Amino acid sequence: MSLTTPSWGCCANEDTDEYEQFINCIICNKSYHFLCLSIPEIPNDSDVHRQWKCPGCMILITKSSREDRTPLRTVSTRRGGKRQALNSPPNPATVTADDVRSIVRDVIKTELAAMLHQINSTIVNTINKELEPVKREVEDLKESLLYHTKDFDELRSEHANQGNHSEQETVGLPQLAVSSTTNFQLSKSTIEIVPRVMEGTQGGGTAGRPWARAVKLRL
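C-alpha cells predicted for PHD-type domain-containing protein (219 residues):
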C-alpha cells in the first residue's frame, strides 16, 4: 500500500472512511477500494496484492495482445451501499439536559449523604470525648456517696445500740435510800455505761430523791 496520497480510480474519497482498505494498480498506480470493486480484501503481504492490476489496465493488456481495435468496455466502479469500516469508532451517545440534570442530582445526593454522616460522626465523637471526664467524676461521686452512706448507717446503728444499752435498767439492784459518796474520781474515759437502777420490791426510794445509777467502768 502506498504511503503517498493515493490517486483514486474508483470514487471520490470525501465520503469514505479513512480506515477503509484499498489496493493499488501496479500499471496505472491508481487506488481502488475493495468495496468499490466488490471483491474481498486481499492481504498486503500476498503476491496477488503486489501484482494486482485494475480492470481497465487488464482490458488494455488483453486488447494489446490481440491487436484488436474493438472499443473498450467501460468498467463500472460505482460504490455500493456504504458499510461500516472495521475498527471504526462507535457513534457517540446523545446526552440530553435531563440526563445531565439527573446525573448531577444523584451526585449531589450521594455527596450530601456522605457529608451528613461524617458530620454526625464528628459531633457524636466530640460530645463523647467532652463528657468522658464528667462521666468518670459522676461514677467516683457515686462510689464515694455509697461508701459514706454505708459508714453513716453503721455509725447510726452503733449509736442506737449504745443509746439503748445506756437506757437499760439494772434489774435486781434495789434503789438505795441513802446515797453514799466516795473519794473516787470519775472521768468520761473511765465510764463505759451508766444504766438506771430499777426500783426493787423492797425498800423503795424516797419521794423527790433522784434515782440511783450504777456505773460500769472500763477495765
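The helical segments are 34-37, 47-50, 55-66, 97-166.
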